[in-house]
Input
Amino acid sequence: MLLLALDTATPAVTVALHDGDDVIASSSQVDARRHGELLLPAVDRVLAEAGLRLDAVTGIVAGTGPGPYTGLRVGLMTADTFGLALGVPVHGVCTLDGLACAADLDGPFVVATDARRKEVYWARYADSRTRLTEPAVGRPADIAGEVAGLPAVGAGALLYPDTFPQAHEPEHVSAAALARLAVERLRVGEELPAPRPLYLRRPDAQVPKNYKVVTPK
Output
């Protein structure tokens, strides 16, 4: 087994290789505006670090979000392209689940990432491997009652200390955690879904309401 994992659902552009026993190479850079520019060089970097070629990969793992439309689609389209070119399966893993795995907490907690527009993408967890709620998006003040008293991880939690007073790192997901989680699930026979994006809301870019189509007479 050699899984190539990647995620662009948060400001982190993160890539890792997992050989079925451990993560053998990884790279993470935080830049919310350069996902498309940074992702493929990061893939090249982890392959070079491991001394392997892309055609050695036996499966792809992609973070499915939730996340902003533009950043998220970079990773998902790249994963699909690799899978098609190599003829290998492409597995989807929720980005929030990857953050929960990296947090490695025993008791109940919350994962919250920055959704912009003064909102967070969030979900509750029983432990680092068990999600209790479906990923959702909302204003911190509106979900305060649902997360009260719980530790929280992720950039969204760190941004809103009034709602998440027990917030701490990790701030962003790592592909290494996604890869570990995927390997664990595959080993117990779980069928991982195809990577379909969790957008949860419409893109930030919108057609102006009073847009007029001008056609030649």
Remarks:
- The longest helix spans residues 69-86.
- The helical segments are 35-50, 69-86, 95-103, 140-147, 155-159, 175-187.
